[in-house]
# Entry
Amino acid sequence: INAEYMGALMLEHERVVEQLQNVEQERDALHQQQQRLLAEKESMEAKLEELQRQQASAALELSSALSSEKETNTKLVAEFEELRRLTVPPLPELTEVLDTPERPKAKQCCVTM
# Structure
């Protein structure tokens, strides 16, 4: 083996070693990036789980509030219907009484009230 060939082999060896070092540095950088991304993913998943718990809690709260509101409205409608039923005379009959030719101003009076 001559000196020129040995010199070329040494240069090639140094180039390959340098490339190997560059590849190892790049691999390490990619590994660090992967670790950061995994940590970020885990953090986002934890946040998502918390948001889903909050959403479920809010949905239950809303459902309960709507149920309570519906119950209250049902009671109010029943009370209103009972009050309307107890009104003497009922409103249509009152309109008929006031809507007679003998009492034209009575209807006007009630309408303006």
The two ends are 122 Å apart (CA to CA).
